[in-house]
Amino acid sequence: MKNNFDIAKLCAGEENLSTEASRDPAFIRRAVEIADLNGVRMALYHNTRDAELAALPVAAKMTPEQKAIVIDKAVAWLSQNAGPRTLPEPPDAELRMMTEMAVGGPMGDLEYKSRNDLHAFKEFPLAARWEGEKPELPADFRVAIIGSGFSGLATAVQMELLGIPYVVIERRGEPGGTWTINRYPDVRVDTPSNTYEFLFEKNYKWREHFGRGEQVREYLTYISKKYGAFDKTRFNTDLKRATFDEGRGRWVLEVEGPDGTDTLEANFVITGTGTFANPRFPNFENQAAFKGTIVHPNRWPEDLDLTGKRVAVIGNGSTGVQLLSSVAAKAAHVTVFQRTPQWIAPREKYGVPVEDELAWLLDNFPGYWNWARFMGFAGLFETHNMVLTDPEWQASGGMVNPGNDKLRAFLTDYIKTQTNGREDLIAKLVPDYAPFSRRPVVDNGWYRALTRDNVELVTEGIARLTEKGIQTADGKVHELDIIITATGFDIVKYLAPAEIIGKGGVNLHESWETADGPRAYLGMMVPDFPNLFMLYGPNSQPVSGGTHVPVWYIVWAAYAARCMMRTLQEGKTSVAVKRESYQRYNDALDKEALKLVLMSAQGGMERNYYVNQRHNRLQVNAPWYSPDFHRMCTEIEWGELQIA
Ligand code: NAP
Predict the structure, then answer these.
(1) Containing H/E element for 322?
(2) 236 lines ligand 1 (CB under 6 A)
(3) Positions of the chain with pLDDT under 50
(4) Cα of 315 to ligand 1 centre, how many Å?
(5) What is the phi/psi pair of residue 309, to 5°?
(6) Distance, CA of 219 to CA of 197 (rounded, Å)
(7) Is the beta carbon of 317 within 6 A of some atom in ligand 1?
(8) Separation of 445 CA from ligand 1 center, angstroms?
(9) Is the dihedral of CA 312, 318, 321, 322 positive or negative?
(10) Which residue from 127, 148, 249, 202 is spatially nearest to 551, judged by alpha carbons?
(11) pTM of the entire structure?
């Protein structure tokens, strides 16, 4: 099948690859020593099929002598063979053998199927492709993609691959979604960049191991332009209302753009409007009286000068934790208001630039990029057990399960060392609920910042604002110039403020509200809303690992595409989930959710944004074992859908 862009040309355009076949051996050695040893071992095996490498265990179990063998062999091989080549994907049986070698043991079929694309040897892993002839599309057939963040772009690339016309509606003036909005100090990804990227874009040159927000924005604009979405995007255009016209099986979209309101039509609507699109602004008593400045990180003013100011940071989620060190380095004094302690974990190479040697290795060690990124995911493969309560373990005196309790001990020690053993801080900082109950938070020097002379941690509740600052429940007034409200997002407002009207005039938000909050089938489909797919919709974020969301965006976009393709191939106009399937799926989902630590007494559910507080149910996550969820989203149960 011919794509409407030439991938061979695109790949040939990936210049920047060093052409040096050999380098100073000391440089090569440094490169190999910095690199991920599992990635080195696997890439070297892939190139050489050296049986001695196959017999070695994974890096964590290697003796120093075994590590030295891998490094020496890699240095010797690279000295002769380094160069900017890519490797073809091995035949499946061999790839499986190598994948099992990489993780140090056998893998079930279910697990392997959910992982065999993560090495990204294929051009477009996980994407849907036409099998046989592409059917002729009805006249005017097109898809509307709402949003040009990660999920909107994944969908656009999927449409490009299928040669299906589409338009992207983007509220902002550039691609990038949340990464264009959040511009607060030190904003960056908190999962390694080589796992927080699209599988189809090979060896993108990340400047840091955890890319800064600015580079993620650049990346998404680059993707949008390279794969053809940019020119099909209506920027500065906001979806106001989408109404399904039953008679014609088409969506009518009312949008507001630079030239006023407009109406356009699409056969399918795929939304990538983001979970973190609607900031949650606090509404403290007497808030308007405060004479200083209140800033939500989501609306960070470019010219905000913190120098010499008395600043409050409210909130210690991923945002508040990420920005504190940088704020404290500038402000005269910072008061951190913590309502609930968080488990905050360190990450290796967080904030560290990609070393020159590693950049060279990525370009000149064929297969290393693939295997290193695969190993970046592999560490998460076993995390599902960590999120389940283990009744036997609990009966024997444990708190949650062995892995979770071990992590709790590790993180508790981490708090103690980072705060230099300060008992006053430790008492306030150690949570009384289990790790993995909330979205993990990554430390950006937050604990260390709390030990600074100009930083104070306040756990007394906020009673009200006054002209001069924040008054806590003990009556004390904390005088301030600036209040940073890192208070999170209104998670349950999926697709808001756009109004979505389905069959029979049903309003999506009203129907959710009159039931028990937002729900969907596989996080994507709702019965009265044919030809509508939500990416990152209700209950879609996998509760445990294996892969990060950019991989899932591709999976979900491919699911929507397959549904569309089948509808077209059958000469029909609409596809929707059957009501009973939606109900059955959600009943099973609610039952599965109860196994999770975050929904248990150990989970401290109160005020956890993963949970819909109003309806007391899991809201953000898909509770499934990740390979199961992958199967559900890739092996479509056609019987659950109605194509008409
Ligand atoms: P969040 O996790 O919802 O945290 C909000 C914080 O504000 C919590 O500490 C909360 O306290 C506190 N808070 C809210 N209302 C308050 C009030 N009225 N009074 C006092 N405290 C209040 O929000 P977030 O930090 O913006 O993170 C949201 C998500 O965005 C993250 O989980 C992550 O998925 C994503 N994110 C990612 C990155 C990244 O590095 N990739 C960075 C930032 C954000 P309670 O805990 O008591 O409710």
Answers:
(1) helix 318-330
(2) no
(3) 1-19, 21
(4) 6
(5) -95, 160
(6) 9
(7) yes
(8) 17
(9) negative
(10) 127
(11) 0.95
* pLDDT tens track for 522-543: 999 999 999 999 999 999 999 9
279 within ligand 1 shell (Cβ under 6 A): no
DSSP 20-57: -S---HHHHHHHHHHS-HHHHHHHHHHHH--HHHHTS-
Burial of 644 (0-12, 13-18, 19+ CB in 10 A): exposed
Expressed in angstroms and rounded, the spacing between residue 515 Cα and the centre of ligand 1 is 26
Residue 278 is predicted with a pLDDT of: 85
Which residue lies with its CA nearest to atom 12 of ligand 1?
A: 315
Q: Which atom of ligand 1 is nearest to the CA of 297?
A: 26
Distance, in Å, from the CA atom of 611 to the CA atom of 605, rounded to the nearest integer, reads 7
Q: Kindly list the strands in the beta sheet with 310-314, ordered across the sheet, starting from the edge strand earlier in the chain.
A: 293-295, 482-485, 310-314, 333-337, 455-458
In this prediction, residue 492 carries a pLDDT of 87
* Alpha carbon distances (Å) from 315 to 255, 267, 477, 501, 579: 35, 42, 18, 36, 40
**465 is written with which tokens?**
């604002």
Interatomic CA distance for residues 409 and 421, integer angstroms: 15
Ligand 1 atom 48: residue of nearest CA: 607
User: Looking at residue 11, what is its pLDDT?
Assistant: 36
What superfamily would CATH give domain 143-278+491-643?
FAD/NAD(P)-binding domain (3.50.50.60)
Q: Is 321 in the pocket of ligand 1 (CB under 6 A)?
A: no
Distance 280 CA to ligand 1 centre (A): 9
Q: How far is the CA of 246 from the centre of ligand 1 (A)?
A: 40
3-state secondary structure 173-239: CCCCCHHHHCCCCCCECCCCCCCCCCCCCCCCCCCECCCEHHHHHHHHHHHHHHCCCHHHEECCCEE
Q: Provide the token pair at 575.
A: 């596809």
CA of 467 to the centre of ligand 1 (A): 25
Q: Which is nearest to 532 in space by CA: 50, 8, 144, 73?
A: 144
Q: What residue ranges do the domains of the chain occupy?
A: 7-113+357-381, 143-278+491-643, 287-350+396-485
Ligand 1, atom 23, lies closest to the CA of 488
609 lines ligand 1 (CB under 6 A): yes
Q: Looking at ligand 1, which atom is closest to the CA of residue 316?
A: 9
Chain segment 438-470, per-residue pLDDT in tens: 999 999 999 999 999 999 999 999 999 999 999
Ligand 1: nearest atom to the Cα of 283? 18
| CA distance linking residue 148 with residue 235, whole number of Å | 9
Strand partners, 477: 471
Same fold for the pair 143-278+491-643 and 287-350+396-485: yes
Pocket test for ligand 1, best of 178, 285, 319, 598 (most atoms within 8 A of CB): 319
Tell me whether strands 499-501 and 482-485 are parallel, antiparallel or unpaired: unpaired
Name which residue sits closest to atom 31 of ligand 1, judged by CA: 318
Q: b/e for 565-592, b at 16 or more Cβ within 10 A?
A: bebbeeeebbbbbeeebbeebbeebbeb
* DSSP code string of 492-550: T-TTTTSEEE-GGG-BHHHHHHHTTS---BTTTB-TT-TTEEETT-TT-EESS-SS-HH
pLDDT at 4: 40
pLDDT at 191: 94
Domain 287-350+396-485 fold is FAD/NAD(P)-binding domain (3.50.50)
